[in-house]
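Why should sequence recovery work at all? Because a backbone constrains its sequence more than one might expect. Tight turns favour small or flexible residues, buried strands favour hydrophobic ones, and helices have their own preferences. The token representation captures these environments compactly. In the example below, the structure is given first.
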């Protein structure tokens, strides 16, 4: 009884319309990724920002909390 089920026995056959829709979705995803990456690179701070950022980065590396009563979300991110 090692007979494969019907779903395993035959491969998926895509219609031309379905393939076009999949290709369109892939292109949209690639364009979205390129645009968001370009925005991120353009707006990213070139070094560690002033203020508490250095302390918060150090706390994140040690898996600690920089200011016990505050900044937990920033530390988790």
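From this structural description, the recovered sequence reads:
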């Amino acid at each position: 009884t090692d007979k494969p089920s019907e779903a395993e026995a035959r491969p998926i056959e895509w219609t031309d319309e379905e393939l076009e829709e999949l290709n369109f979705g892939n292109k949209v995803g690639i364009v979205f990724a390129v645009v968001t990456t370009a925005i991120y690179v353009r707006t990213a701070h070139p070094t560690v920002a002033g203020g508490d950022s250095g302390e918060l980065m150090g706390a994140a590396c040690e898996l600690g909390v920089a200011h016990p009563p505050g900044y937990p979300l920033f530390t988790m991110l």
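A few observations help interpret the result. The two ends are 52 Å apart (CA to CA).
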